[in-house]
Design goal:
This protein has ten helices and 13 strands. The chain is α/β, with parallel strands linked by helices and 328 residues long. The protein is globular.
Length: 328
């Protein structure tokens, strides 16, 4: 069992990862600046408030807890914003990760599980699904910044013996089936919670960003994976590294892409409610279709996603119905 420093542990995926780590017997130490995370989401281990760019604070936290590994989720992830303000993404996602890696090297932490993204592939086409050998070509500063961190991990491995697993995941959705943690952003940018806000009339009406893409119904296609399945892979990735596994990259998805209109239709079925929508212009930096082949994760880690799109929407809806769950 290990103590694991979880950067961004008060955020959506990070909080679910902390629960999965604690359930597996590890000790998750949440490190979060609470810019987009929530103090109320820290429920499964110690909390240390701090920014990635604060080297002194990182050094102190690592010295105090002596983690055996880091799970690194802390990053900005709004594709539209990344296209409008790339400097913010390079400064936060790349600059902050560099400071973290320097602190890890100085503190003797030799393993990282890194939250990367399918956005590193850009608009690459693959009939059988994108795999880890697909050439990278990010379309925006979000994907480019994540790819840059993957390159830094490789270089720190050669220089300092750091081993890493980089998970390139596709669209994460759903909420903890027990209802302890869920997805809560302000403002909300992710499709499924925006759909559910529109269904319950708690948010603004839903705008579909473009319906003229070369897909079966004109809207973008994405591969959705349940957040609980996703963090289970992260625990398996951690165990793989602690057992001596070599640095590598894994895609995490289901190989089952759904268009925006198909997700809306599924949400109508789950909730039994109408979902008003309007069609707006394309969002800069959006790829046409991103669907994953995850054979490597299945073969090496024994990971298999078990929750389908309906369950993603149902668990998210149950969380959404709780209202303003996080207030701090």
């Amino acid at each position: 069992m290990a103590t694991v420093l979880v950067t961004g542990g008060a955020g959506y995926i990070g909080s679910h990862a902390c629960k999965a780590l604690a359930r597996a017997g590890h000790v998750p130490v949440c490190y979060d600046g609470l810019v987009t995370g929530w103090r109320d989401a820290v429920r499964f281990g110690p909390f240390e408030e701090g920014r990635l760019q604060d080297r002194d604070r990182l050094d102190a936290v690592i010295a105090a807890h002596r983690p055996g590994a880091v799970m690194h989720f802390a990053a900005l992830s709004d594709v539209g914003e990344a296209s409008r303000d790339p400097a913010r993404y390079w400064e936060n996602n790349v600059g902050g990760s560099l400071t973290l890696l320097e602190a890890m090297a100085a503190g003797g932490v030799r393993h990282m599980v890194f939250s990367s993204t399918c956005a590193v592939y850009g608009d690459a086409a693959a009939a059988a699904g994108l795999d880890e050998a697909t050439p990278t070509g990010p379309l925006n500063a979000y994907g480019a910044s994540k790819l840059a961190v993957e390159h830094m991990l490789r270089d720190f491995g050669m220089a300092h013996g750091l081993t890493h697993v980089a998970f390139r995941y596709f669209n994460v959705a759903g909420a903890d089936p027990d209802g302890e943690v869920g997805e809560h952003h302000r403002p909300e940018t992710h499709l499924i919670p925006r759909i559910l806000e529109a269904a319950s009339a708690r948010g603004e009406g839903l705008t579909v960003n473009g319906d003229d893409y070369p897909t079966r119904d004109g809207t973008c296609i994405r591969d959705y994976v349940h957040v609980s399945d996703l963090v289970d892979a992260h625990v398996k990735g951690l165990d793989y590294l602690l057992a001596g596994g070599a640095s590598t990259v894994f895609n995490l998805g289901t190989r089952d892409g759904a268009s925006v209109r198909e997700v809306i239709a599924a949400a109508r079925t789950v909730t039994g409610l109408d979902i008003p929508l309007t069609v707006g212009p394309r969002r800069p930096g959006d790829a046409v279709a991103l669907v994953s082949a995850s054979d490597r994760a299945r073969e090496v880690l024994g990971w298999e996603p078990v929750r389908d799109l309906s369950e993603m929407i149902a668990t998210a809806w149950a969380w959404h119905q709780k209202g303003e769950v996080y207030r701090a």
